[in-house]
Amino acid sequence: MSFRLHKGETFSLVGESGCGKTTAASLILLLNEPTSGEVRFENMSLTGLSVAERKAYTRQVQAVFQDPYGALNPRMRVGSIIGEPMEVHGYSRTERQQRILEAIKAVELLDGSEKKFPHEFSGGQRQRIGIARALTMDPTLIVLDEPVSNLDVSIRSQILNLLKDLQDERGISYLLISHDMASVEYMSHHIGVMYLGRLVEVGESEDVTHRPLHPYTATLVAAATPPGRTPAWQLPIIGEVPSPLNMPTGCAFHTRCPYAMDICREVRPVLTEVDGQRQVACHLYPDHVDSIDKDLTESKI
């Protein structure tokens, strides 16, 4: 897989559980080493970093995790949780205290929150604590791993709005990991759709969510959008996701695709530019998609 995340923007990786979204995030966070290829950050390769370079990188790249309950140490007060990254990086006690209070204010928690324990907060408030912890390092990039999936629906919009406001104020870039197309559409500038470890479509948010090119993307959009927004040529996919340990030959999606052709079973499609900034890995393009559009139009008539 290959994609670019631009400064001050949100790039979202979407797809079903197990497709590789979190693995990609763990490579960017240096929690795992790539077996091939490389990850670059501001033209610097993240392979073979020295201790000093690694420490400097982790100041600029922070994370907000999926589970607001499991991500916070229940035995530490909120102030200590938020200030722990700064302590690791050698900030003075005075500077830590100042930044902790600034971060608490930035995520709209009440004064005095730093003196409490995590169990005294709701799930949405705990996620705000996680965001505050990431902000203290003044990062360039924050990896958001399913940041609202464990929250009540009524709270999700509040957290997403907070993240957008912080991005506008501070120019932070986000890598958003999610399977919720509604949240992704609201947050993203660009979207990458993953299936079994590979990108199958990449493009600007509005293009991907309003005019998907890949059959799998169309399925995700149809499942998350109201009637009337369903892609015109989308048909239900069939079957279950194949095991990553026993990948199908050719296109990994051909076992579930209603438009699969002989070539799909034999040759794996590569991600190629189709429509301006759009990229798609599908044998329907550029030669076969017009005939599908024509057939669907005639069937509606």
Automatic annotation (TrEMBL):
<feature type="domain" description="ABC transporter">
    <location>
        <begin position="1"/>
        <end position="221"/>
    </location>
</feature>
<dbReference type="GO" id="GO:0005524">
    <property type="term" value="F:ATP binding"/>
</dbReference>
<keyword id="KW-0067">ATP-binding</keyword>
<dbReference type="InterPro" id="IPR017871">
    <property type="entry name" value="ABC_transporter-like_CS"/>
</dbReference>
<dbReference type="GO" id="GO:0055085">
    <property type="term" value="P:transmembrane transport"/>
</dbReference>
<comment type="similarity">
    <text>Belongs to the ABC transporter superfamily.</text>
</comment>
<dbReference type="InterPro" id="IPR013563">
    <property type="entry name" value="Oligopep_ABC_C"/>
</dbReference>
<protein>
    <recommendedName>
        <fullName>ABC transporter domain-containing protein</fullName>
    </recommendedName>
</protein>
<keyword id="KW-0547">Nucleotide-binding</keyword>
<dbReference type="InterPro" id="IPR027417">
    <property type="entry name" value="P-loop_NTPase"/>
</dbReference>
<keyword id="KW-0813">Transport</keyword>
<dbReference type="InterPro" id="IPR003439">
    <property type="entry name" value="ABC_transporter-like_ATP-bd"/>
</dbReference>
<dbReference type="Pfam" id="PF00005">
    <property type="entry name" value="ABC_tran"/>
</dbReference>
<dbReference type="GO" id="GO:0016887">
    <property type="term" value="F:ATP hydrolysis activity"/>
</dbReference>
<dbReference type="InterPro" id="IPR050319">
    <property type="entry name" value="ABC_transp_ATP-bind"/>
</dbReference>
<dbReference type="InterPro" id="IPR003593">
    <property type="entry name" value="AAA+_ATPase"/>
</dbReference>
<dbReference type="Pfam" id="PF08352">
    <property type="entry name" value="oligo_HPY"/>
</dbReference>
<dbReference type="GO" id="GO:0015833">
    <property type="term" value="P:peptide transport"/>
</dbReference>
